[in-house]
């Protein structure tokens, strides 16, 4: 019982001190708070301005041979590019394909090659990377060279390319 009384008295004393402190320096605290808020707003604007000078970076993975997924990836790319263009910010976008997704960039099997050509002509910030390992494996399996669309650049490993871009701070998307 005595212990509870001591705890209660201590809490009451601290509460009283806080109330008195607030009452005697309330105007000062409000003024200080207003200044702090103003500084925070200036800092927020400066931070936002700093972010706008750095381009956003998006890497999109396609690893399935599915026209709907390929079109969804291209829709996502288009939407991101349009959004940042409308607000005056830069964005770099790379689509990395590997495994069955390589069909997206194959000249002989791509269901979206016309769309990729069109998008590449209007979006210089857009690149397409094809997995070299997948291309080699497909060439062996099909006993022929695997032709890629002109917009594709070959990277040794699609998975490694994804990792490296993410390690450099790129945002990752898999539709």
Provide a short characterization of the protein structure:
With 175 residues, the protein is of the alpha/beta class.
What are the key terms here?
175 residues; alpha/beta; Hypothetical Protein Ychn, Chain: A; 2 domains; 5-stranded parallel sheet; 5 helices; 15% strand
Describe the structure.
- The chain has helices spanning 2-53, 67-86, 113-122, 132-142, 158-167, and strands at residues 56-62, 91-97, 126-131, 152-155, 171-173.
- It is an alpha/beta fold and 175 residues long.
- It has a 5-stranded parallel β-sheet with strand order 4-3-2-1-5, with helices on both faces.
- Helix 4 (132-142) links the parallel strand 3 (126-131) and strand 4 (152-155).
- The model is unreliable at 21-35 (pLDDT under 50).
Name the CATH class of the largest domain: Alpha Beta
Radius of gyration: 28 Å
CATH superfamily of the largest domain: DsrEFH-like
Question: If helices are DSSP runs of H or I spanning 4 or more residues, what is the number of helices?
Answer: 5
How do the helices and strands line up, and which of them pair or pack?
Layout: H1 2-53, E1 56-62, H2 67-86, E2 91-97, H3 113-122, E3 126-131, H4 132-142, E4 152-155, H5 158-167, E5 171-173
Parallel strand pairs: 1-2, 1-5, 2-3, 3-4
